[in-house]
Amino acid sequence: MENAEVGTRNAEQQHDGRPACSAFRLPRSAFTVYHISPQARFGQRALISLLRDKRPDVIQVEQEPTTRGCQQVVRVARKLKLPVVLFTLQNVDVPLRFFPRVRRRRVLRRLKGAIAGSGGAAALLRRAVPNLPVAVVPQLGVQVPPETEHALHEGLAIGYVGRLVPEKGLDTLLQALAENRGGRWSLWVVGDGPDRERLERIASELRLAARIRWTGALPHDEMARLWAELDVLVQPSRELPGWAEQSAHAVAEAMAHEVAVIGTGAGATPEVIGDAGAIVPPGDAAALAGALRRLAATEARRPLAQAGRARVMQLFSDDAVAERTVAFWKEVVGPHG
User: Fold this and answer.
1) Which of 83, 123, 176, 259 has CB 3.0 to 4.6 Å from 285, enough for a Cys bridge?
2) What residues contact 309, with CB distance under 8 A and at least 6 apart?
3) Residue 177 to residue 243: CA distance in whole angstroms
């Protein structure tokens, strides 16, 4: 795929099917990427003109097949005989009406291949189109620092990073910490959302408020400093009808910084953790409290933290994700498109 031109599209964003394009060359790479932004407004003719002019070896669409944008790109690419690879995060089966279901099936059957963000997403694709080549690769890689630092502090420094919504299960973590009231710990809650007021009220009712820092959402540079403050990251996601954790990206970031991780067995989280962390049943505060007690000892955390960093470097680093993605492109379209 030397000097290949690749069309990409942002994931999980709805738009009106009129994409724009900007081109840039990746550092130290042998191919050019043309990014088609969902915020821009281009019509059908502009998209046809763009793809006819650039003649990419492969187009990767990072929207779900039910969106207008994905359907438009696949339709235009088919007319121009250009191969399309889909990236999908959808890992639960969502009921569709007849015509949206037909359009989704048509899109999937016109693909050259698909990249799924998790094993659950891959299983849905294989069920829908059994012969479609599918790879499981995260949408985003993680920057692995050359060295990790950890600040000195008293007790166990626990972190939660994510949206404050019921499905994320932060209330389960609060209940687990109430069971460990006698231990020495503190909690950083990073993120915001509509459930914050309820969660703060629960923390007060459980008499935990003085040991919790609610930071709100943090920019990337402050997140990089936060990892040094944490001993353990907890992702207590629930398992609900119609929803499952899609990527567990924060878990991978924590592992890259040698922060031990605890997650539930729901969605993509256990796929990211593997055997390099603790996994507990979703919604089980007692099991989560027990895992936190076990990891309160430095000698129990250190092997998991080191294994987590090694796992991220192998599977989830920026370089690893890029290499796995390009390898799949070559597999489905050939070395020269």
Assistant:
1) 176
2) 144, 148, 255, 256, 257, 258
3) 25
With tokens 């709805």, the residue in question is 14
**126 three-class SS:** helix
Residues 134 and 88: their CA atoms lie apart, in Å, by 11
Q: Among 140, 114, 136, which residue's Cα sits nearest to residue 10? A: 140
pLDDT tens digits for 103-138? Answer: 999 999 999 999 999 999 999 999 999 999 999 999
What is the value of pTM for the model shown? 0.85
DSSP for 195-240 reads THHHHHHHHHHTT-GGGEEEEES--HHHHHHHHTT-SEEEE----B
Around Cβ 192, how many Cβ atoms within 10 Å?
16
Angle at which helix 196-205 crosses helix 170-179, to 10 degrees, equals 10
* Contact criterion met (CB below 8 Å) for 62 and 34: no
DSSP H helix total and E strand total for the chain:
12, 13
The pLDDT > 90 percentage for the chain reads: 71
CATH architecture classification, 156-315: 3-Layer(aba) Sandwich (3.40)
Evaluate whether 96 touches 66 at the Cβ level (below 8 Å): yes
Q: What is the DSSP track for 268-304?
A: THHHHHTTSSEEE-TT-HHHHHHHHHHTTSHHHHHHH
Amino acid at 264: T
Distance CA 313, CA 332 (A): 25
Residues 6 or more apart whose Cβ sits within 8 Å of residue 207: 178, 181
- Where, residue-wise, is CATH 3.40.50.2000 in the chain? 4-141+317-333, 156-315
Segment 230-238 shows an average pLDDT of 97
The per-residue DSSP string of 40-66 comes to: S---HHHHHHHHHHH--SEEEE-S-TT
Report the amino acid identity of residue 247.
S
Q: Which tokens sit at 142?
A: 């993680």
In the DSSP assignment, the letter for residue 26 is P
**pLDDT of 11 higher than 50:** no
Give phi and psi for 196, each to the nearest 5: -60, -45
